[in-house]
Amino acid sequence: MYWLIGSLIIIIMMGVLAVADDALVPVDLFLLDMVSVSKLSLLLIVLAVILMVSAQFNTPPVVIQKVVKDHATYLPYNNNLSLRIIKYLLFAILTIALVIGSALQALVSHQQAESAKIIDPIRVQALVRIEGLSDSVYDTSTDSGYRQVAVVTNLSPLIAELDAQDLAESTSNHLENKQNSLSDNTLSNNGNIEYRVLLNAYPKPLSSSDSLAALNDLQPGDQLFMSLALTPLASSEQVLNNPSGFDSYRWLRGRQIDGAANILAVSTSTISYEALPKQVVTSQSYLQRFRTYIDRGRWQLRQHFYKNWSLHSTAEQQAKAVTLSLLTGDRSLISLDTKDLYQLAGISHLLAISGTHVLFLAIVMAGTVVLLFNRFCPIGYRYIPRWQVRWWVMIGAAFIYALFTGFDVPAARTAWMLLAIGLVRLTMLPTSTMKVLLALAILMAWRDPYVLWQAGYWLSFIAVALLLKYDDTSYQYNTSASAPHRVHSGTNSNNVRTKNTVLNHAWQVVRRIAKLQFWLFITLLPTTLLLFGKASLWGLVINLFAIGLFGWVIVPLNLLAGLCYLLSPTIADGIWMLVIAIVGALHDFITWLTSLPLLSGVWLYTPVNIAIVLMVFLFMLPWLLPRGFISRWLALTPLTLLIMTVYANQQSLTTVPTLYVLPTGDSYISASLLQYPIAHNAARSGINKRQKSTHWLFLADHRPKNARTMTSSLTADALSAILEQQLGSLSVNNLEGIIVQSNSIGLTDTINTNDQRVDFDIGTSELLPMTMAQLSQKLPVSQYWQAGRSDRWTQLQQAYQVTSQADRASNISAQRCDQGKIWQLPSGCLTIQVLTGWSTINDASVWDCSIAIDTDLPIQVLRYNAADPLQSLDMTAQMDMEHTHLADTKLKSSKVIEHQETPAVSRLILNTDTHQRVWQMWELLCSDEGFNEIIASSQTKWLGHSASHITADIMRHQNIDNVITLDDKPLDAASSLNKHDDVVNTNTNTNTNIKSP
Fold first, then answer.
1. Which of 159, 394, 652, 790 could form a disulfide with 786 if both were Cys (CB 3.0 to 4.6 A apart)?
2. In angstroms, rounded to a whole number, what is the distance separating the alpha carbons of residues 829 and 682?
3. 693-701 and 735-740: which strand pairing?
4. What DSSP string describes 315-336?
């Protein structure tokens, strides 16, 4: 019953948060005024205590007495029965109250978050207060951006652009007003409004100034004025351009973030925390001030590691960054490549401050204090037991270190767990460690329901629960298997027995570690796939030695250096040099190991949702419960449902022609995947029956050539890794072809130098071809179409294979993507043809190729959902209308296609035009021919960027019914086409009304 109630509370709270967020529940101010989150959590704790006490009294006592058969014996039984009914009724009422209260707690927390969030984008001048450490540092050499959680107040609309001097003047005026006034009367009406935002600032490639580099000098608690562009969290770049399977929106909401803020300008003067007026500091709580001082200490330690950063090699920098992360939980110096390496190795969890770090430091501190007590004050044990001395020291050390590392869920869970276990022992409550763990999980959810959206919460509690369960099961097995052995006399027999015992013990240790690692990997696999969308099989191997190396060597030495840093930084630097050398060697070994062709397809991609995780839990339930409690044959039912669900999910991805628009992290660079099922046409088309669908990948850079835009920060390595993960989650193992629709000047030696267009980086133009080169080494690709000329493609491909040391060199030739090029299935049910692109003309402005996809089935266009690919949503159409003035033309032209065996009923145009000359050339050469070809389709969709140069006349020629933009911004040509059609329809109706009499 205990586990049922606890699981029900967590499930109800998760359901309320999910429904309230998806259904856009309006904010109820009356509910917020009536219910307080803190008071409600205290009420829930009181109800839980009463429930546990009543549950103890519901347990009937065992009474042995002599039975006397007379009438008076039955009276107490009736009284006990009525008392038991009252107890069970009270138990049920308290349970219902706990469940309803938990749901109300989640709803009120959601309402508070909704009432405080940023609704509309706006540019403001605001006073910024830094909270905690930044997530990353500002570094132009590595193109690393600055991300920092901060509180903004004193908001005022930004009417004119302010420079750093203007903001510095505002900062000094604010400090003077605070020092000269004991109240907040000097503030404007917007001074009482505050938002908790995520500050963002990224290096600008074309900017010569480096005014934002001073952001790295901001310490926790500092205040200054900034010019900001506030954005709602749901429409921020971190959420919209999220190419990975990690749910960034829920992660930011779990951190109590109200919105995103892009930094426009920064004040040159800063109000440090020490310089704040006394009334401002004293207005904060003791815990907040203590937390600020600890964060400033963490910042000082980061600066110690960051000193002379540019003088070290990249390998040394990342070894130091990982060492700092293992000490304080500060990952700001870790590069994306290092994070990818740990993720590929399956040891990303080792970068977080886990319970091992906290527990190890607590044990060391407790042991030191006990030794001091034994040496100098043994009389103190008369007043307090030894275990209580050790317990109080461990609690203090655990909480202080947890605060020093940011008080993340794993560290906080360990500190609270130590406190709870000590209280259980102190009060001698009859409970188990697993029940304490479940109670702690519920208490943390009551305190902050949004913690249920954090991946660390689930991985931490589930991993600890599995370790406890495995330890109990292993202990019972070893106890039952152990038996006394007969001892033989003799020296030789003793030596042999000792040798066999050592070998057997070593084998048992290795076997136990391997079994434990396999147990944890399998049991955490559904949760990992649900939270991150993928899992690495390398984790089964690397964790076998990495966990021991980190837990017994790196972490203890690192913590020892941290303690020595308080006394002698010189000694600490010597120990850190050893730790950095060990971490660097580990990085080199993991890089070499993961580059071996032993496991080429190490990533496991399977779409997972809550239903699949629930079925996995039901399947494992007989093994989690005590042996014999539930028959293990009952696990066959959820196992069957699990297999059927996973199979159905895989089949649902290839049953309907679908074009997935894949997020790349750059609003101008698009990637689209076409999945067309061919199983129903395999018999008559001569296609391999094992091939269920054909896949085409379309890549394009939509940056207009006649306008100045920000250069893409994407690299070919990052983009190919993103696409590989997305294709894997959609069960795509091979590609029929890759089409790069935008031309690449870096691939040709012949270019028209008289063209007066904006200069661009040739290296940037090679982004998509290099991405294609990397994808072709990871996935079988049959064809490669490249817009424009590709004279240097062979040299570029060979150079990549040499530098990357690819084990299997896959050479593929580049075909020109010119107007008129066609590919189709033998059955004719799918045709891909090129509408634009003339590489024979010595002008790169007409090289971009737009693609027309004709199918016998309607194509659904979905925006890929990285968090849950099965829940990808339809893209919103800007224009959805029928061209009535072309209806007669379609009917007259229907005779032209009667001879076709399978006429196309749907056309999708993938538009790419970085210059207006592309469609001008099509209108000049191909407008009549193109119109005669497309009238066979009953529906035509257009998919492109809002920066497209296509005109309304060309769209009318293309007979487009639906217009969809990749960036969800309006297309000017579609708007003018709508107005034109409205005028035509109005005139048609007017003429009809005139003729009708």
1. 790
2. 11
3. parallel
4. HHHHHHHHHHHHHH---TT--H
Helix (H, G, I), strand (E, B) or coil at 749: coil
Residue 831, Cβ density class (10 Å: 0-12 exposed, 13-18 middle, ≥19 buried): middle
Give the three-class secondary structure for 59: coil
Element (H, E) at 874: strand 873-874
Higher pLDDT pick, 966 / 1: 966
Average pLDDT rounded to a whole number, residues 693-717: 82
More confident residue, 420 or 76: 420
Instruction: Identify the helix (H) or strand (E) that includes residue 215.
Output: none
Closest CA to 846 of 942, 915, 906: 915
Residues 6+ apart with CB under 8 A from 870: 607, 609, 649, 652, 653
Which range of 378-382, 836-840, 864-868, 988-992 scores highest in mean pLDDT? It is: 836-840
- Residue in 774, 699, 775 with CA at minimum distance from that of residue 741: 699
Separation of CA 857 from chain center: 34
Q: Which DSSP symbol is given to 143?
A: T
Structure tokens at 317: 């920098």
Nearest to 136 by CA among 124, 152, 147, 125: 147
Q: Which token pair is 517? A: 């690692």
Tokens of 419: 């406190």
Run of H or E residues at 765: helix 762-765
Residues 862, 166: Cα–Cα separation, whole Å: 46
Q: Is the pLDDT of residue 628 over 50?
A: yes
Higher pLDDT, 448 or 979: 448
Q: Tokens 């089949």 appear where?
A: 651
pTM assigned to the model: 0.77
pLDDT greater at residue 819 or residue 811:
819
pLDDT per position as a tens digit, 720-734: 888 888 888 887 888
pLDDT digits (tens, 9 = 90+) for 914-945: 888 888 888 888 765 544 444 455 678 899 99
- Mean pLDDT, the chain, as a whole number? 77
- φ, ψ for residue 868, nearest 5 deg: -150, 90
DSSP E strand stretches across 705-855: 735-740, 781-786, 815-816, 822-824, 830-834, 851-855
Highest mean pLDDT among 26-30, 526-530, 664-668, 771-775: 771-775
Q: How many CA atoms lie within 13 A of 24 on its CB side?
A: 2
d(CA 80, CA 316): 74
Instruction: Give the integer Cα–Cα distance in Å for 213 and 224.
Output: 15
Q: What is the mean pLDDT of residues 659-671?
A: 88
Longest CA pairwise span in the chain (Å): 126
68: pLDDT strictly greater than 60: no
Element (H, E) at 402: helix 386-404
| CA–CA distance, 806 with 794 (Å, rounded to integer) | 16
Instruction: Count the Cβ atoms, other than its own, within 10 Å of residue 155.
Output: 21
Give which of 36, 48, 50 is closest to 98, Cα–Cα.
48
Q: Does residue 588 carry a pLDDT above 60?
A: yes
Q: Sheet of 830-834: strands edge to edge?
A: 822-824, 830-834, 851-855, 906-910, 940-944, 962-965, 879-880
For residue 355, give both structure tokens.
């319970």
Q: Please give the Cα distance from 96 to 100 (Å, whole number).
A: 6
